[in-house]
Amino acid sequence: MTKVYFVRHAEPNYENHDDLLRELTPKGMQERKIATDFLSNKKIDAVFSSPYKRAVQTLEDFADKSGFKIETIDDFHERKVGTEWIENFHDFSKNQWTDFDYKLAGGESLREVQSRNIAALKEVLHKYEGKNIAIGSHGTALSTIINYYDKSYGYADFEKIRSVMPWIVAFEFDGEKCVSIKNLGKPEIWDAYDADYKKIEDVALVRGEDDMFPEGMYHLVCEILVRHVDGTYLLMKRDPTKPLYPNMWEATAGGSALKGETDIEGALRELREETGIVADKLEFLDKSIGGHCWHVRFLCVTDCDKNSIKLQEGETCDFKWVTGAEVLAMTENELVGWQMKKHIK
Predict the structure, then answer these.
(1) What domains are there in the chain, each with its CATH number?
(2) pLDDT class for 314, splitting at 50, 70, 90?
(3) Between 20 and 30 A from 221 (CA), which of 15, 43, 50, 151?
């Protein structure tokens, strides 16, 4: 089997209208390390890219650290829009996905973009059969590649990834036959910790690859119990689309600490993202190992407006404030994070 990891570039400088020379922003230069960390354990054999600067820059960090020379292939470049800069990109994109032959003067249709990208990909597959390949790409170009193998992929799917950078899609091929496509989005990268809660330097763990974690390595999961100054506790309802525990109440806000974050930094960020509560300090409660995780628990005491709680799309769908007695009365079938009960008054 041949594995191909297409990596859409990190955030570019849209103030630069030169498509060939548009560089990454400082944020993009920082976030290209997500691609570096993701590819680090994929046993890559060769690195290719669109010749456009933003695509090359995105893979440069990985290539430099891994001893690869990036080979640019012109046919992997992004769709040429036309002779002028497009301000209403939304309508232009919708027109192109509605009609694969639609194009502006001096520009390319999606059919033309797809044709040259697929031709370039097939050449790589022929030359590197059975290898693991990384290819620097672009949002539209990569979307047309997915569409070639999966005709259900269309404008609605493209809209979902428009702001996802870097964006990684993993393809698996048997010869030229595509046997699987995994849309990995913008991978979440974590630091690794040992059983003594010591950070392991120069090791990155990737969300969704728990079965590939080395023995004795764990990532941080930050859990925050929120108590109002009036004594009530915040419960958040998990979104119905969540694969685990949908529509169940949770006695904590929280999630995984990102690479480079301490436990307290990860906890404060997760609290802000999931509830809208901005705190400057938390009280440490306890920590324990469970599965591939170090679970680190904190308490936030807040005087926030109880009606100001914000929901995070795809994560939570409702909230409520309840007394400690009400929380303690809930069963494991009603409440996720029941371990927090011992910290509830």
Answers:
(1) 2-185 (3.40.50.1240), 189-343 (3.90.79.10)
(2) confident
(3) 43
